[in-house]
Design brief:
heterodimer, A: 281 residues, alpha/beta, Rossmann fold, 22% strand, globular, B: mainly alpha, ABC transporter involved in vitamin B12 uptake, BtuC, 3 domains
Chain lengths: 281, 516
């Protein structure tokens, strides 16, 4: 039994997603360990983002079961929760492949929106705060402190009052991670966090992810194309190809797996010759 | 501007060519529209050619464009430069001063000559030019000598003070000096403007903050008006009791509309809300047993001042009797003015407060990106419903005010064009901007209403000219103008709802760390 299969945070069993006749994910099962950095890799169109969308509730899977087990023992069946409850109740946060910030709002406001549920409760669901009841002011102060903490972590304190849409690309990526972290998640899902970053920014991202894992004690589940990043930071790699899982293991195991090499580099030349000879006798 | 060194001959040639092309296009466009007129004769419809009108139109375009080409578009020194500079902070040079001075002198001379010959139209033009230059210079002078005044704040505070003191001051002046001011008309007009300001602010919550395009806002206005009218006429309930009930009823209908359209966005949402507005109007028209159909509901009571009605007779039981002042029909109207002013301020204050609460930020976040909102655990269903309900509630409050002011309501008052006007106010003002919406409401409603009473225009276009007929045309022109020059509305900027305090000592340290 592999280390992440003992008491995993997230267990995905027999996940299948069909769009009409197209099978985007075909019977995929895996586990995401607590405090692991787990990577989901595969060629373009392998179904990685579809897996993410199923876990975070943006798609309802055709078949399968996704269980998130909290440290306290509470279990959430993600396929039964509404998408906003997956974040609010099960504490799964995500970022998007094409960044989805609130561009017209300031950096700080972006982080305040992320703490909506906490603040909404503190504001007595608006009515209390309008009447001046409750402890909204204090809750808001705490929310600003949490936001400031994450802005420090991603190095954006100086730009807190600028519109999020004005930030450079790399800053927007980091702000999206900070925003996800402001929802206090147990599982952080990152969809291609290093896409479009230069080598230095990408190193900074690795450090940030390590730091999050070490200090927040949460699991990180990420899709990534950049193999150098994946092999360096992951504890556990899952490889998808054409919607099927073709490998699952440590970076070392995955690197030497013949089916992964075939999926990424194509099949060896002899096999191609075999096939051509079959087609054109 | 042209390349320096182009000879005058070349410029004239290109200017003539361009003007000629414009003239041809004008001729092609207007040859049928203006050049021919159908006249209903005894023998049937006949065509009456109007060559002179067509020639004059084409001539205006040709020469107008030629002048623009020579002196503005293709000139080394565009004649419009000094006028544009009036509204910037660029320094004037000698040439600018000469042009401005010449313009002012010409306008002044024109004013005197026009006054001598009693030519009202030219007088009006001269005054307009003088006022334009004068205002521009005044603005520059203020900007030069006190550049750091908070103009926005002064404008807002001035506007609020004006709104608060305008009726009492003018009423007092009138009573003291018998100036013969058309007070009744002024008050009615300002009540109308304030009603639209309130409706604009209410719709701004739905469209401006939450980003849900609502073309049926008038439905909530109607629900509020009919709720009050029916409760007042059938059960004899007073305005102040019915006001919150009408607001709640409208909010309820907001939720009822909200539920089926939750999944829709943009154009689709606009179509469904449009249909909802029409459905409500048609129900009001046809459910004769309850709403009295097209005949409407009449003799709706006026609001009272803490139980004291504004009626002429009855010692001590009426407003004037109780306070021992002479009865004046304007007292009731001034009271109505303050009621709608208070309601509008309430709308504004609640909106400003909500913007700084989680729900307001969620609305704005939903406008920015709904999917991101859901990924952050925000229940967009509830968020949308609250936006619909809050906006609808203010529409309902305004509606019940409308009913009590008019004393009579019928489905006629709640047609689609009302929704369109309110939406136009929000869009022109700048979605999400409270000040912009207020300015747009004043300009659109007050400005067009004032147009009806402009005698000067008749001296241009003949005695039979009624500017009010061209209301929709001007409306459209204003829309096009705004879309060209300020595509996001008069006031497009958004003020953040929260700031990280950067003045404190700790924060400057943080900034240093942030950059490391």
């Amino acid at each position: 039994m592999k280390p992440w299969e003992q008491d995993p945070l997230l267990t995905v069993e027999h996940l299948t997603m069909r769009f009409g006749g197209l099978v985007a994910i075909d019977d995929v099962s895996f586990a995401v360990g607590r405090q692991d950095i787990t990577a989901l890799i595969g060629p373009n169109g392998a179904g990685k983002t579809t897996v993410f969308n199923c876990i975070t509730g943006f798609y309802k899977p055709t078949e399968g079961m996704m269980t998130l087990a909290e440290p306290g023992g509470t279990r959430f069946y993600l396929e039964r929760l509404a998408d906003h409850d997956i974040n609010a109740e099960a504490r799964v946060a995500r970022t998007f492949q094409n960044i989805r910030l609130f561009p017209g709002m300031t950096v700080l406001e972006n982080l305040m929106v992320a703490q909506h549920n906490v603040l909404a409760r503190a504001s007595g669901f608006t009515i209390g705060a309008i009447l001046g009841l409750g402890h909204f002011a204090r809750a808001e102060k705490q929310a600003v402190e949490l936001a400031r903490h994450w802005l420090e972590r991603v190095g954006l304190v100086a730009r807190a009052d600028e519109a999020a849409g004005d930030l450079p690309y790399g800053d927007q990526r980091r702000l999206e991670i900070a925003r996800a972290m402001c929802t206090r998640p147990l599982l952080l899902c990152l969809d291609e966090p290093a896409a479009g970053l230069n080598a230095r920014e990408s190193d900074g991202l690795n450090e940030l992810l390590y730091a999050i894992r070490e200090q927040e004690k949460i699991a990180i589940f990420l899709i990534e194309h950049d193999m150098s990043v994946v092999m360096r930071i992951s504890d556990h790699i899952i490889v998808l190809d054409y919607g099927k899982k073709i490998a699952d293991g440590t970076p070392e195991e995955v690197r030497n797996d013949p089916s992964v090499i075939a999926a990424y580099l194509g099949v060896p030349d002899e096999e191609v010759e075999d096939i051509t000879s079959e087609v054109r006798p | 501007m042209v390349e320096p060194g182009t000879s005058f001959g070349q410029r004239l040639k290109s200017a003539l060519g361009d003007s000629f092309l414009a003239a041809i296009i004008t001729f092609a466009l207007f040859s049928l529209v203006l050049g021919l007129r159908t006249v209903d004769n005894v023998t049937g419809l006949t065509l009456q050619p109007r060559p002179m009108l067509l020639a004059v139109t084409v001539g205006i375009v040709f020469f107008g464009r030629l002048l623009l080409n020579l002196f503005v578009w293709q000139a080394q020194y565009p004649l419009t430069t000094p006028f544009a500079k009036l509204f910037t902070r660029d320094p004037f040079d000698t040439r600018d001063m000469v042009v401005l001075g010449a313009t002012a002198l010409l306008a002044g001379a024109g004013l005197i000559v026009a006054a001598l010959f009693n030519a009202q139209a030219y007088e009006l033009i001269a005054v307009a030019v003088l006022v334009f230059v004068g205002l521009g210079l005044l603005r520059r002078a203020i900007g030069r000598f006190c550049p750091d005044l908070p103009y926005g704040r002064i404008f807002v505070v001035g506007g609020i003070l004006f709104a608060v003191f305008f009726p009492l001051t003018t009423f007092g002046l009138e009573k003291a000096f018998h100036l013969g001011l058309p007070l009744r008309y002024w008050f009615d007009l300002s009540i109308l403007v304030l009603t639209y300001v309130m409706l604009g602010w209410g719709l701004n919550i739905v469209v401006g903050l939450a980003g849900l395009l609502d073309l049926g806002y008038v439905a909530f206005y109607a629900v509020g008006a009919y709720t009050f009218a029916l409760l007042a006429t059938h059960f004899g309930l007073g305005f102040w009791l019915c006001l919150p009930i009408a607001g709640l009823a409208a909010a309820l209908w907001g939720v009822i509309l909200g539920f089926p359209v939750l999944r829709l966005r943009g154009d689709y949402l606009a179509i469904v809300t449009l249909a909802f507005g029409e459905i409500v109007r048609i129900i009001l028209l046809n459910w004769t047993e309850v709403t009295n159909g097209p005949n409407g509901i009449s003799s709706i009571p006026k609001p009272t001042f803490f139980g004291l009605p504004f009626t002429p007779f009855g010692d001590g039981t009426t407003f004037s009797g109780f306070f021992g002042i002479k009865y004046d029909p304007l007292q009731g109207i001034i009271f109505l003015y303050y009621v709608i002013l208070a309601l509008a301020f309430l709308t504004n204050l609640v909106t400003l407060r909500l913007r700084r609460l989680p729900i307001g930020r969620a609305w704005e976040a939903m406008r920015e990106d709904e999917i991101a909102c859901r990924s952050l655990g925000i229940n967009t269903t509830i968020t949308k419903l609250t936006a619909f309900a809050t906006g609808a509630m203010f529409g309902g409050l305004a509606g019940s005010f409308f009913a009590t002011r008019q004393g009579f309501i019928s489905p006629e008052s709640f047609t689609f064009i009302e929704s369109a006007i309110i939406l136009a106010i929000v869009v022109l003002g700048g979605m999400g901007s409270q000040l912009g919406v207020a300015i747009a409401a004043v300009v659109m409603v007050g400005g067009f209403e004032a147009l009806r009473h402009t005698e000067g225009l008749q001296s241009f276009f003949g005695a039979g000219f009624d500017p009010a007929l061209y209301r929709m045309l001007l409306f459209g022109l204003a829309m096009v103008g705004i879309m060209v020059w300020r595509p996001r509305g008069l006031i497009a900027s958004r003020s953040p709802t929260i700031e990280l305090d950067k003045a404190g000592a700790i924060s400057s340290d943080l900034v240093g760390q942030g950059r490391a």
